[in-house]
Design goal:
The structure is a single chain. This protein is α/β, with parallel strands linked by helices. The protein has 2 domains: about 1-180, HUPs (Rossmann fold), CATH 3.40.50.620; about 190-280, Pantoate--beta-alanine Ligase, Chain: A,domain 2, CATH 3.30.1300. The chain contains 11 helices and 9 strands. It has a 6-stranded parallel beta sheet, with helices on both faces. A 3-stranded antiparallel beta sheet has the order 7-8-9.
């Protein structure tokens, strides 16, 4: 606790809701960047966007147990609060960091009433039962607590962005702002889970991205896209010894299966050395 309070010079760390309410009361133009820690350049790009569009920026660090459908995944999720705070402080672009406890977010014992529509049980929702219900529940609670004017989320988690935007903008006077995916020098999409990968795994991830670019490029030449993608999925599995949950082309406006490259994205989720990675392009 002493460390958390004394790392701060320019940004203010809020360790509970009382501190948060007192600190945020004067401000009505807040930009909010929700994170589960593992701060990287992708998060910093969200903060940059918030700084351009809002007067004040608040970042949350909260590993939400409700959105993990696998207890092992929750236990292995990278956590390093000291490192995260150092990075955020060094950026000199964050006004507030909200580091709540579980009871600050889930201050009541009411069960979430959020359920996904059948049409939304696709992509990650199909393979991670309860995941997005947990995401929507915690984003609903965080938005109610923080009352931001704008929320900044990355396009790497495109389905998450799509569902949060659809859900929150109906309930609150807040806008969810999409921000482009940030990649490393080898074009691997930045993710907190990348901290769990060794160098050889990151090399494979870079090769998979290169292959995905080729697949996307060649889609327009194919009449039977579904068959083409199934074949590519098998090749990826065999060539890189990975497990793939899905490889699908979907429309960006409603996430329905697409038969054309125009206004569509190629989505993938795969396991590399037991670490689940997602990407879209």
């Amino acid at each position: 606790m002493f460390y958390l309070l004394n790392i701060l010079i320019q940004m203010k760390i809020l360790l509970n809701n009382t501190s948060l309410f007192e600190s945020l009361r004067p401000f009505n133009d807040l930009g909010f960047v929700p994170t589960m820690g593992g701060i990287h350049k992708g998060h910093l790009s969200l903060i940059d966007k918030s700084n351009k569009l809002c007067k004040k920026t608040i970042v949350s660090i909260f590993v939400n147990p409700k959105q993990f459908n696998n207890k092992k995944d929750l236990r292995s999720y990278p956590r390093n609060i000291k490192k995260d705070l150092k990075i955020l402080k060094k950026s000199k672009k964050v006004d507030f960091v909200y580091v709540p406890k579980f009871k600050d977010i889930y201050d009541d014992k009411k069960k979430s009433q959020i359920t996904l529509l059948k049409k939304d049980e696709i992509l990650c929702a199909k393979f991670r039962k309860g995941h997005f219900e947990g995401v929507l529940d915690v984003m609903n609670r965080l938005t109610k607590i923080i009352k931001p004017k704008k929320i900044f989320m990355g396009e790497k988690d495109f389905q998450q962005l799509f569902l949060v935007k659809k859900h929150l903008e109906k309930l609150y006077k807040t806008k969810v702002i999409p921000c482009k995916t940030i990649r490393d020098k080898n074009n691997v999409a930045l993710s907190s889970r990348n901290f769990l990968l060794n160098k050889s795994s990151l090399v494979i991830a870079a090769k998979i991205y290169k292959k995905l670019v080729s697949i996307k490029k060649n889609i327009k030449k194919k009449k039977k896209i579904w068959s083409f993608l199934n074949l590519q999925k098998k090749e990826l599995k065999n060539n890189y010894k990975i497990k793939i949950d899905y490889l699908e082309l979907r429309k960006i406006n409603n996430l329905k299966i697409s038969s054309t490259k125009k206004n569509s994205r190629l989505f993938i989720a795969y396991y590399l050395n037991n670490v689940r990675l997602i990407d879209n392009l």
